Amino acid sequence: MLVAGGAVFAHTTLRGKFAVWDAELDRLGLKGDERVLDLGCGRGLVLLKAAARLPSGRATGIDLWSAKDQSGNSQDATWANARAEEVADRVDLVTGDMRDLPFDDAAFDLVVSSLAIHNIPQEEGRAEAVREAFRVLRPGGLLRIADFRNAPRYAEVLRECGAADVEVYDLGWRFWYGGPHARTSMVACRRP
């Protein structure tokens, strides 16, 4: 059981989450000129996948750059990854707290977050990050939060904000961190 859990964890870390985010971003049908925000972007997995789909758009990542939450997490590492993926010309990186975003209301077409919001220790802080994500979405904008904790609460906060088409769905075994007890869910919505 321990070996199987380790194998699933390794698959998720090395391949599974990449495939899941590729499918999620493809499903959104981006036109290529959108403004995308990645909350807690870390080394840039989702940020750079989004940027690759934005030949005339911008992808902005915001993070506190804490190595405690993700090993090797730094702005320099993310820039290096953006250059390696040949999307640095479409990327902006910002140091900041997702509970108090330094962006105008309705500034982004798509806001994403992958396994970041749960790092905020207090429930109210996580709720504030979700509210901020919704605040910076333009009308008609989309939000996608992948996390393995608190997804129903995130959905509740989004409904309280007035979000439309709020849903929570399981991302399947490719996004398990060790087994079905550590599955990742996607919270999705649209700003009316």
TrEMBL record:
GO terms under biological process: methylation
Coiled-coil parts of chain: none
GO molecular function terms listed in the Swiss-Prot or TrEMBL record: S-adenosylmethionine-dependent methyltransferase activity
Residue span(s) of domain Methyltransferase type: 37-144
Pfam families: Methyltransf_11 (PF08241)
Keywords linked to the UniProt accession: Methyltransferase, Transferase
InterPro entries in the cross-refs: Methyltransf_11, SAM-dependent_MTases_sf
Organism superkingdom: Bacteria
UniProt protein name: Class I SAM-dependent methyltransferase
